[in-house]
Design a protein that fits this description.
single chain, 422 residues, mainly alpha, Amino acid/polyamine transporter I, 0% strand
Length: 422
């Protein structure tokens, strides 16, 4: 194993300059609240009220366990997730995993670009075509042409866009006693509607594209530091703190969106909300123009953050699978195939919009594909993270392994339960 020191920002995780030292974890957590996710959480809150707030409490440790394991794999081995799957499993397993995440990411990108354009139209009367093309061109250009050490700073600043959903709560009248009760006391009707809602929540929170991104960005950060990789307790603990901070922020925003939708749109009964922009539009007359504006701005900001992460995770997965040179730290001339995958991934989402993408159907399909991809990928992560041959003395502990297995069981079991629900 090469001797490299861990990236410098996390050498001292406590003290002043906290945000500047956060690494891939905070970007991953914020990217989890993409426009498709915002639409899902809004839909659940509007349809079920506070009834499923407990899912945020359950999802946080499970999502954290998965992301901590993928970060551990990248940090200790200096390899991305697809590269590790390629080394330790059969080619069929590798191609299956890469195909699932590529399809899910493409539909997610398409839905997110459409949501960003629709949300922007709530503020300014710009034609939908110009917006989807413009957003795609801007995001592709930033990811391809800006060096990683600068681009990662752009992504970290975009993380602040999720704060909009926390601020919105200050404009609402919320019964916090009811919120606390439903968050801490799980209750669920075993109906198809409620089970489908829980599937959507877990599928959106524990998303396969984040697995590939997290592991790959740990490697990027190490390479960017120019030192040597010497995994030790400090580095592992710093990584874990970064991941916990990121996933906590992501799940907190999920919780805030569900509370917002329940306290406003769904206050007088179940209401069907299918997309993020519908939630923003419905919020205006109920919570005020400023709250609606913040919600809308959040959709655009999270889209600018999440779509490059989606496209990047596809590029890492495909490039690692085929042995191409990859990495945002490399120039275009050094990793042409890698950057072409990023561009084509975004173009795929763009074409879906140009050819009459149905945003609701795209959201549904991406959720289904994420739901299908997550359980087998989590099992692969579990097998890798517990292996002494892969991680040696730094393999995941029993708590982490239990969290991974629980996430896999819930992600795989809920669709089966849905089949037998009334």
């Amino acid at each position: 194993m090469s001797q490299r020191e861990h990236h410098h920002r996390r050498a001292r995780f406590r003290g002043s300059g906290y945000f500047r030292r956060l690494g891939p974890g905070i970007i991953t957590g914020a990217a989890d609240d993409d426009p498709s996710g915002i639409g899902t959480y809004s839909q659940v809150g509007a349809a079920t009220g506070f009834g499923l707030l407990w899912t945020a409490v359950v999802a946080l440790p499970l999502a954290t366990a998965v992301q901590e394991a993928t970060a551990r794999l990248g940090l200790v081995t200096d390899k991305g997730l697809a590269a590790l799957i390629k080394t330790h499993f059969s080619r069929k397993v590798l191609l299956f995993a890469v195909l699932l995440v590529t399809l899910a990411n493409t539909f997610n990108i398409g839905a997110d670009i459409g949501s960003m354009a629709a949300a922007t139209q709530l503020l300014v009367p710009i034609p939908h075509l110009i917006l989807v093309v413009g957003f795609t061109a801007i995001m592709a250009s930033l990811e391809v042409f800006i060096p990683y050490h600068r681009y990662s700073k752009v992504l970290r600043w975009l993380c602040f866009s999720i704060v909009a959903y926390i601020i919105v709560l200050f404009f609402l009248k919320v019964s916090w006693g009811d919120v606390l009760h439903h968050a801490l006391v799980p209750h669920m009707e075993f109906s198809r509607t409620q089970i489908a809602a829980v599937i959507a929540i877990f599928g959106t929170t524990i998303s396969p594209y984040l697995f590939f991104w997290q592991a790959a960005e740990e490697v990027e950060e190490i390479n960017e530091s120019g030192g040597t990789l010497v995994p030790n307790r400090l580095n592992i603990n710093s990584m874990r703190g970064d991941v916990v901070a990121g996933m906590t922020s992501g799940v907190t925003v999920m919780f805030a969106i569900m509370v917002t939708a329940a306290a406003t749109i769904g206050k007088n009964g179940s209401i069907q909300i299918s997309t993020a922009e519908q939630a923003a539009e419905a919020l205006r007359p109920l919570a005020g123009n400023l709250a609606g504006l913040l919600f809308t701005v959040g959709i655009v900001g999270t889209g600018l953050l999440a779509i490059p992460v989606l496209a990047g995770s596809t590029a890492y997965a495909v490039s690692e699978a085929f042995g191409w040179r990859e990495g945002l730290g490399k120039k275009l001339s050094q990793a042409k195939a890698f950057y072409l995958v990023i561009v084509f991934s975004m173009l795929g989402g763009l074409m879906m919009n140009l050819f009459g993408l149905n945003a609701v159907r795209a959201l549904y399909l991406s959720a289904i594909l994420n739901g299908l991809a997550a359980p087998p990928l989590i099992i692969l992560v579990w097998l890798l993270a517990r292996s002494k041959n892969v991680l040696g003395e730094h393999r995941s502990g029993k708590v982490s392994q239990t969290g991974l297995l629980t996430a896999a069981i819930i992600s795989g079991g809920l669709p089966i339960l849905l089949i037998f629900a009334r």
